[in-house]
Each structure stands twice: as C-alpha cells, then as structure tokens.
Amino acid sequence: MKEEKFTYFWRTASPFSNWHPCTFEIDNITFNCSEQHMMYHKALLFDDQETASEILKAKTPGKQKALGRKVKNFDQQVWEEQCKHIVYQGNKAKFTQNENLLKRLLKTEGTTIVEASPVDAIWGIGLAEDDPRAKSRQTWLGKNLLGEILTELREELLLNNSLKS
Fold it and tell me: Which helix H or strand E contains 43, and what residues bound it?
C-alpha cells in the first residue's frame, strides 16, 4: 500500500489558512479572508443579520471569529450539517479568484492537505506538524475538516482543468 503524503499548514502566512489575507467576491459581497466568509454565512444561517453586518465591517479575522462566536440562535447540530459546504464555497471563490493562491493549491497535487494546528481538533488535526503523531492519519487527534475540504477542492479544480485541455 502506498504511503499517504501530506502538505501541512498552520497560521495566517499559509495561503491555505482561513485567516490568510486575500480578496474575493461572492454575490456582490467582498470578503478579505475566508474566515470572514465563514463567519458571515454562519450568522446568516441563524438569521442574525446584525452580527452578519458587523462581521462584514470587521477588518481582522480574529475580530470576525469573535463575532462569529456571538451569533444569536446558534444551533451546533445545524452548524455541523452546513459548515463544510459554507467553507467549501468560500474557499472555492478564494482560490479561483486569486491566481497566485490557486497555483499554490494545485502544487499540492498528490498529497492530503493537513491543518497542523495543535489547538484545533475540528478544522485541524489537533497536533503540530513536528509531532510524530501528525505523520499518520490514524494518530491524529482532530478531524482535519479544513484540510479535507481543501484537498477535495483541489481535486475538483484539477479535474476541471484536465477537462478543459
């Protein structure tokens, strides 16, 4: 069996981070990072227009995330059912509207993208890249939802590129 290869990332400097600064537009709304997109749509999902508006005005992903934690009428089960789709759509716009970011994403071909965050066991693996347990999916402490979404998105974009040529 072929050994799985990983592309690790963590922190804002990585183009794969939801906090990485970039501009993209969806439905005539401009976002400054995919974190802002995710938190905005989280607020809309629970019909919290006031917080959604504040998230669009917030300039930093830290502030956007803090506002996202205050969304009124939040329901964890509903969020878990919808969050992956929301994050996928935001990242699709982010990467397809920013050619330099798209090139970086496509260069990960043949690997699974992994958010090596020691503090996030939902979107990341709950481990740092230099932790020996990060080298095997079986020993991860987290779900790596963001990494899985980015890997799936990359595969879709590679397939679409090959169909065009």
Answer: helix 34-45
Instruction: Quote the CA–CA distance of 56 and 34 in Å, as a whole number.
Output: 12
H or E, element range at 8: strand 6-9
Please state the separation of Cα 81 from the chain's center in Å.
16
Amino acid identity, residue 106? Answer: L
CB 164 within 8 A of CB 50: no
Residues of the chain with pLDDT under 70: 1, 164-165
SS3 122: coil
CB atoms within 10 A of CB 164: 6
- State the pLDDT at residue 3: 85
